[in-house]
Amino acid sequence: MQITASTRTISALTLSLLCIGAAQAAPSITFAGWGGALQDAERKAYLEPAAKALGVTIKEDNMDGLAAVRAQVLSGKPQWDVVELASNDCVLAERQGLTEPLDFSVIDTSGVAKGLYGKNWIASNAYSTVMAWATDTGKAVPKNWKEFFDPNFKGARSLYRQPFTTLELALMADGVAPKNLYPLDVERAFKVLERIKPQVVNWWRSGSDSAQLLRSREVDFLSIWASRVNELKQGGEAVDYTYDQALLDYDCVVVPKDAPNKELAMKLIGQIMSAESQARLVMLIPNPPINSKAYDTGIIPAQMAATLPTAPANIDKVAMFDPVWWVDNQAELQRRFDLFIQN
Question: I need a labelling partner for 208 at 20 to 30 A (CA). Which of 20, 52, 129, 148 fits?
Fold first, then answer.
């Protein structure tokens, strides 16, 4: 058979159409996260295994919080199917009608504690604020929040430049049990903060800021996210920290209102929340699992589990952040806290 240019053209066109048809037949879904090291880890722990298990293509995008979700939903044509947000924003998005109810017949919550999911959201990975200190100062440093907020412990210290987290730490320092934090006794918390305000040399704004303060020894002790101080410690810095009375917060996942692939989105969240996916994530980045069954998979070594705040050995030592309470109270307390710092 003689192959002419016309034949080659027809063959190429047929092949192209077959490829297009195959591509159209393979469903796709879009996940939007925070980017950076966390999303790199999520790709390996969550998205690639989920794509294989569900037989779908998972596309990725980055976003910068609730405002981005709101803009897509209000446009009437959201492009994202699953989005990861901060805990406060997940609660707020549900209240503002920006997210879809989750299908808990597809998403297994049997290993997830009550309070870590709502009608339209579920916590996906945890992080904690801990007490940390330099071990090479040559002087006594606090090892718990009571000592941290005691002005008799001299030394430069730093706290998060936000009322949430900081007020909780002040109350635990004043003897409030972690399980009894909410509703916060705001007046009591500000009185505790007032005691050490002159010794707070820096109110840090970001995780990188807090790590640099400790690395440079601008401060002797501070509140800090556990992943940040653990990174310093693993890198050989003379620092240490404790999970006792750590404050546990989390990111969570939602499905934007009118997302183009809602059914697949629910299945993807089901994969994200599986014990295996949760265990794989913490092997890549120190964001502990929300699903307690992750500790039964054999993926997380016992030595590592001993350092994680959501592990059975540590969970009773920590306080759980309440995003619902903060959504109700943050606007007022933010103004008061900002004035407190400035004056």
Answer: 148
